[in-house]
Automatic annotation (TrEMBL):
CDD domains: KBL_like (cd06454). Residues 50-390 form the Aminotransferase class I/classII large domain. The gene is hemA. This is 5-aminolevulinic acid synthase. PANTHER family: 2-AMINO-3-KETOBUTYRATE COENZYME A LIGASE, MITOCHONDRIAL, CLASS II AMINOTRANSFERASE/8-AMINO-7-OXONONANOATE SYNTHASE. It catalyses: succinyl-CoA + glycine + H(+) = 5-aminolevulinate + CO2 + CoA; 6-carboxyhexanoyl-[ACP] + L-alanine + H(+) = (8S)-8-amino-7-oxononanoate + holo-[ACP] + CO2. Its cofactor is pyridoxal 5'-phosphate. Belongs to the class-II pyridoxal-phosphate-dependent aminotransferase family. Pfam families: Aminotran_1_2. Pathway: Porphyrin-containing compound metabolism; protoporphyrin-IX biosynthesis; 5-aminolevulinate from glycine: step 1/1. Its EC number is 2.3.1.37, 2.3.1.47. Keywords: Acyltransferase, Heme biosynthesis, Pyridoxal phosphate, Transferase. Gene3D superfamilies: Aspartate Aminotransferase, domain 1, Type I PLP-dependent aspartate aminotransferase-like (Major domain).
Length: 409
């Protein structure tokens, strides 16, 4: 007889032996106090400061967003009551989609329960329905894009991260008659680097490829009105589909795609992960709508984010603490060893009350373990200085190497 429970227990044991088993810290966010939070656990309730949140602009606690959500709960109740097709299409969903289409200067937008589902659903349909489609995917693309491409069944070529010569070589080696999709991100969150978007758009034009751009780590934070990196670089309109999340800069939950009406309509009509699932709670859509509208009007949060990230980057540079890239607002501190990475994170938390989740394999390759630090507008300058000093001390005690002045990791 097959021992089902024993089988999964053994799988978990193997994962633990590989050092890949995850435990979650219990973090109680406190509305209005971000980045402060309470760390719960045995005998705990300690006040900590969060340095690894994707609530990049603190919009998850913005008074306008909270007010919109409270009002929508009072007005509409908790859940949406169904899928978009069966009674779950609320005016907040429709308004949010209109607002997102407008943000990206696209004809149409479609929201999903998460950014993960948006990528999986959209790429499954786009690459799956185009006959003989070949997908060109950056090697560091997020798991949700990889899942969508896999679910589409399309042939896939992986190009080296941001390597446009490699992408061109692969495009040139593919039958010109076949439909092609280039799938990439604008800001890569583990690296904090930016794709050469202009070159991608040129290559797409030359080889008649369709472009699918994940702007999850850019929407709300870059470009006029927060439309993302492509918009910031004056490349709006050069990418066929832009995908984003409502869970990071927009502080709530959900994901979306924006693009030409016929393409978005095809995703709406054919994507199982859109059709057969309950729509977002209307109050979540209302909160996201408030965040998108606010960040369209206000540049303040974007400017503060850049200033705070710049300050931390400068303080770490002065101390020779290696950072993978300084091209975007995320500050990935390279440690390069899984055990040391956990030790540094643990000391920052236990001694100083700074919470940064260590990032180990398989999220990043073995040997490039890192702390993915995300300063936000809500981290004060004093706190940033305090964090840099604390990291400096922990770095010294751990005997970690410093890099030469001026060099990046
Ligand atoms: N794309 C990228 C590049 C991501 O990093 C993530 C999540 N971290 C997602 C998509 C999924 O977004 P969500 O959290 O809204 O599911």
């Amino acid at each position: 007889m097959f021992g089902y429970i024993d089988f999964f227990s053994a799988e978990i044991e193997k994962l633990k032996e590989r050092g890949g088993y995850r435990t979650f810290l219990e973090v109680a966010r406190m509305a209005g106090e971000f980045p402060a939070a309470l760390k719960h656990g045995p005998g705990d309730g300690r006040r900590i400061s969060v340095w690894c949140s994707n609530d990049y602009l603190g919009m998850g606690q913005h008074p306008l967003v909270l007010a919109a959500m409270k009002q929508a709960v009072d007005e509409t109740g908790a859940g949406s009551g169904g899928s978009r097709n069966i009674s779950g299409n609320h005016r907040y969903h429709v308004e949010l989609e209109r607002e997102l289409a407008d943000l990206h200067g696209m004809e149409s937008a479609l929201i999903f329960p998460s950014g993960y589902v948006a990528n999986d659903a959209a790429l499954t349909v786009l690459a799956g329905r185009l006959p003989g489609c070949v997908v060109f995917s950056d090697e560091l693309n997020h798991a949700s894009m990889i899942a969508g491409i896999r679910h589409s069944g399309a042939e896939k070529h992986v190009f080296r991260h941001n390597d446009m010569e490699h992408l061109e070589e692969l495009l040139a080696g593919t039958d010109p008659a076949l439909p092609k999709i280039i799938a990439l991100e604008s800001v890569y969150s583990m690296e904090s680097d930016v794709a050469p978007l202009e070159r991608v758009a040129e290559l797409a034009r030359t080889y008649n490829a369709f472009t699918y751009l994940d702007e999850v780590h850019a929407v709300g934070m870059y470009g006029p009105h927060g439309a993302g990196k492509a918009a910031e670089l004056g490349l709006d309109g050069r990418f066929d589909v832009v995908q984003g999340t409502l869970a990071k800069a927009f502080g709530t939950a959900g994901g979306y795609v924006a693009g030409p009406a016929a393409v978005v309509d095809a995703i709406r009509s054919f994507a199982s992960a859109f059709i057969f699932t309950t729509s977002l709670p209307p109050a979540v859509a209302a909160g996201a709508l408030a965040a998108v509208r606010h960040l369209k009007r206000s540049d303040q949060e974007r400017k503060q984010l850049q200033a705070k990230a710049g300050l931390l980057q400068e303080l770490l540079r002065e101390r020779g603490i290696p950072v993978v890239s300084e091209a975007a607002h995320i500050v990935p501190v390279l440690i390069g060893d899984a055990v040391k990475c956990r030790e540094v994170a643990s000391e920052l938390l236990e001694r100083h009350g700074y919470y940064v989740q260590p990032i180990n394999a398989p999220s990043v390759p073995t040997g490039s373990e890192r702390l993915r630090v995300t300063p936000t507008p809500q981290h004060s300058e004093d706190e940033i200085v305090g964090f840099a000093r604390a990291l400096d001390g922990v770095w010294e005690r751990a005997g970690l190497p410093r890099r030469l002045a001026g060099a990046l990791a």
